[in-house]
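Appendix C: a fully annotated inverse folding record. The material below is reproduced so that readers can follow the format used throughout the book. The structure is listed first as tokens, followed by the designed sequence.
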């Protein structure tokens, strides 16, 4: 297992979220099944906690899709897909990604994964996370 697998899973989830909030009518039950099959097949070597986080993110994506498909139009006043995720589910949508990132840092730490996690999750629980911490400092402490 490598950090690249975790990064790939994080990217896949972000692409899923973006797609379901920007084009909710393009998603149905079969599309979610197909996404899960592809993503979990690619992630079959990841620890169970990571696979659980991926499944939880899919359930969040289904809720996002339901929320935005009931909005009445595929286009909202918000152009940024992240804002749409926040409007619909808030922190609950991001928790599976954070959990996946943390498992990745515990099991396959790399500078690239660390930097991507630091970039994606600058704020956690309304507090700066890893602000001013280098990979080397983090590695010494963990």
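Designed amino acids, in order:
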């Amino acid at each position: 297992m490598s950090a690249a697998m975790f990064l790939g899973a994080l990217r896949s989830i972000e692409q899923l979220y973006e797609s379901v909030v920007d084009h909710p009518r393009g998603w149905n039950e079969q599309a979610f099944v197909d996404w899960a099959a592809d993503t979990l097949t690619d992630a079959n070597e990841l620890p169970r906690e990571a696979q659980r986080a991926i499944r939880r993110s899919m359930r969040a994506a289904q809720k996002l899709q339901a929320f935005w498909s009931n909005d009445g139009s595929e286009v909202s006043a918000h152009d940024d897909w992240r804002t749409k995720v926040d409007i619909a589910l808030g922190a609950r949508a991001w928790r599976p990604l954070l959990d996946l990132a943390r498992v990745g840092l515990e099991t396959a730490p790399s500078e690239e994964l660390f930097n991507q996690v630091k970039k994606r999750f600058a704020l956690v629980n309304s507090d700066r996370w890893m602000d001013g911490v280098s990979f080397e400092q983090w590695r010494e402490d963990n």
